[in-house]
Write a structure and sequence with these properties.
- The chain is mostly helical.
- The chain has one domain.
- It contains 4 helices and 2 strands.
- The chain has a two-stranded antiparallel sheet with strand order 1-2.
- Helix 1 packs across helix 2 and helix 1 packs antiparallel against helix 3.
- The longest helix is centred in the first third of the chain and has 30 residues.
- It is elongated, with a radius of gyration of 20 Å.
- The two termini are 27 Å apart.
- The mean pLDDT is 88.
Amino acid sequence: MDSFNSPSTKPLYRGTQIVWYIVGLIEVLLAFQFVLKLLGANPSAGFTAFIYSIAHVFAAPFISVFGVTEVAGSMFEWTTILAMFVYWIVAYGIVSLLLIGKTVSTPEAAIKLNDQQA
């Protein structure tokens, strides 16, 4: 059975789409937070407060890793950059694990093994 017609291909594809979608949302929220703080946005403005409250959930595990560079009301949050990087790496790892379950033909496996040895 070739890997294109395998019954496991579509669920794996959907699974990877879901992982990248969720991580994309997290990355966008963190990017908004980073840019708003960098530009010195008013934290009591409705949109800013909304973004900060949601993004804080995802940035919280990284808050004390690095300090914040602050100049004239603008903040460069190294921890937000770290959070974005870590979430992307975790997503890549999850997608890689999902793809391990993909059905491969013997010739396809042989080619991939040869590529890994090179």
